[in-house]
Write a structure and sequence with these properties.
16% helix; Cu-oxidase_fam; Cu-oxidase_C; oxidoreductase; binds copper (II) ion; six-stranded mixed β-sheet; alpha+beta; five-stranded mixed β-sheet; metal-binding
Length: 375
Amino acid sequence: MSEVSAWFRKKISRRGLLWGGLAAAGGSAIAGTAAGQSVHSGHATTSAAGAEPPQAHLAAHGSMITVGDVDNERNGFDPSRMVTDWETGSVSTLPDGRILRTFEIEAVDKEIEIAPGIMFPAWTYNGRVPGPALRATEGEHLRMVFRNSGSHPHSMHFHGIHAARVDGVPGAGLIDPGEEFVYEFDARPFGCHLYHCHALPLKRHIHKGMYGLFVIDPDPARHPELADVARSRLLGTPENAEWQEFAMVMNGFDTNFDNGNEVYAVNTVAHAYMKRPIRIVRNRPVRIYLANVVEFDPINSFHLHANFFDYFEQGTTLTPTLRTVDLITQVQAQRGILEFTYKDHETGLYMFHPHQSEFTELGWTGMFDVVEAVA
Ligand SMILES: [Cu+2]
């Protein structure tokens, strides 16, 4: 293929994917302009800030989003549930009185639908991309039981503090298909971290879907000077229940294996939160655990519309590392906590997206639906 035609093909595949590409992908992908076709059956959620039915006007022409719907049931995961779906594992007490928290994670090959009609041959943790959003408390002892039921060697490499022998690299927890390994370490430091596969080639294993959030809540007893703040971050406390917390992993997919992404998203499904905005109760505070795992592009970002937020870089402090900003950037594996409120705003739809316009058009844009109260 000549250089020019290769260039042209790349342009078509990236720019044209959501429009011309979808038209070619099948009738179902282009037939979803009627509002009714966007309606999913509702899912129960434990959070007051759960998913809303789609806003018909968002799916109309001119809104620059994908047309049609992804089959969440076939995928086995739903972005509207993923934002509040924390995996807390199972808990027991060690002889010395400390908490032992055990997580079970299985690597599985799985074809997933990332945009209407666009399938991607993913490698997953527990059948979902991103993998489960693991959540523990500072000081606990963690046991990660990892089984590889996939077709390739995989591992779990945690961003945290631990011994070399459980680092999830070759010789330290990189395991062959059919094998099992237990990563064991203490939960520290508190913060918004992540885990991912560390098999080679690294960029391929990460980009195939092997990543997830790993959040360690601060233990208020260890932070007496800011115990109230720590308690507000500790899942299960009344102070934490006041907050509307969301798990967001910014990811991308190279659907034609040319080392460039064709689809971008938060939590995998292109434009999922444009079609079903994330509901926020106006006068309750919002906290987002945000990580960037996009491969091939050096940088990603998060911009909040009509508002500003405080940012906690890597979540490892109880006071903000950036105050009153409306945009932050993240390289791969960078992450942090955003805190904000819409209590002084009118109700309505408020957008969030990266400020790389290309990413927004290729799937990474969402809406908060700020409401007065939840019935
Ligand atoms: Cu892997």
